[in-house]
Amino acid sequence: MSANNAFATHEGAMIDLRGLRKSFGSNEVLKGIDLTVQRSEVQVLIGPSGSGKSTLLRCVNHLEQPSGGQILVAGELVNRSDLKPRAFQRHLNRIRTHLGMVFQQFNLFPHKTVLENVVEAPVQVLGRSKDEAVADAEELLAKVGLADKRDAYPVSLSGGQQQRVAIARALAMKPSVMLFDEVTSALDPELVGEVLRVMEDLAAEGMTMMVVTHEMGFAERVGDRVIFMADGNIVEEGVPAEIFSHPREERTKRFLGDILK
Question: Which is nearest to 169 in space by CA: 111, 129, 99, 118?
Answer without folding.
Answer: 118
